């Protein structure tokens, strides 16, 4: 059971990051014995460290809007909402080279049992969670396993940090070279007969006498899984389980998206060798700690409903000293 920093007085509905990071940094979990690989009752570590990789969450893209910070700067944001996002399994697999693969399986969005297959009904029954519409797994470090049945909350992410969002992009059907690849096209004046939007020559002369594979040509545009990286978390609403991220994310409205901690914005310290996994991650400016191993619904009950990131951008209308 988590013990959180207690307020000396009733908190306001809005809280700054300086208070929220103290709350996250003082979250302590009770130690438990180390489980076997087949067990689902994993112990919760006490604190995030630079080598930790947390699980991600499954959210729904609700659309875009704008927010204004305390200096009046307008920020376009995308609203992501968690729908009954729960942990359904902890995965530990031994590879051929005797290394271990650790992952946390997460499911979201309740669905009727009558439209769920028998196999998935048994899987959800074992995890003691209702049937879900989408199930995904996120690779984690061995210390970041989450007990099965845990309900994840929007406070899993701290305002001020960066996240990566992956989803299936909007399909645009068959598109030409100008729309698909940004080609300039041919001249739009006299002398070009019905070839204004053509891509031009695609092959060479007799040598090689063919079109090289990978040539940018007309074809299907969109409808692929893509990842938008380094999106800043602007605001978190724990009462409605909303995450406000700066900028646009892939996918149509109400589509499921995968949200996890950013890989590239966490600056490397000391030795940097990604091929061997020898690198350390540093939290962004203004963030002291992350809820570890995950931000749960129980933790959200002890926090204010809305947590916002502070603004580090100085307004041009404020006199500089």
TrEMBL record:
Keywords: Mitochondrion, Ribonucleoprotein, Ribosomal protein, Transit peptide
Annotated NCBIfam families: L3_bact
GO molecular function: structural constituent of ribosome
Cellular component GO terms, alphabetical: mitochondrial large ribosomal subunit
Native organism taxonomy: Eukaryota, Fungi, Dikarya, Basidiomycota, Agaricomycotina
Keyword Transmembrane assigned: no
HAMAP family hit by this protein: Ribosomal_uL3_B
Domain of life: Eukaryota
Protein name: Large ribosomal subunit protein uL3m
Gene Ontology biological process terms, A to Z: translation
Primary location class: mitochondrion
UniProt source species: Marasmius oreades
